[in-house]
Predict the structure.
Amino acid sequence: MSSKHKHREGEMEFRLLLAVTLPFFFAATVFKRVMPWNWGRDKRSVFAATRTAAHNSLPFAFM
């Protein structure tokens, strides 16, 4: 197996894992936003915050 094939396979695994877990990250972000102590703190959109949380957390699954 070439390194290019392994890289592509790893990228596909990451995208699949991202697609599967994104709804959970979205629910957690929405839940965090509706808590009264967080009102008005984060100015980013809910989707941007969800993507950031997912992209910061998912690489730990590959360690």
In short: Residues 29 and 49 are 7 Å apart (CA to CA). The chain has one domain: 3-62.
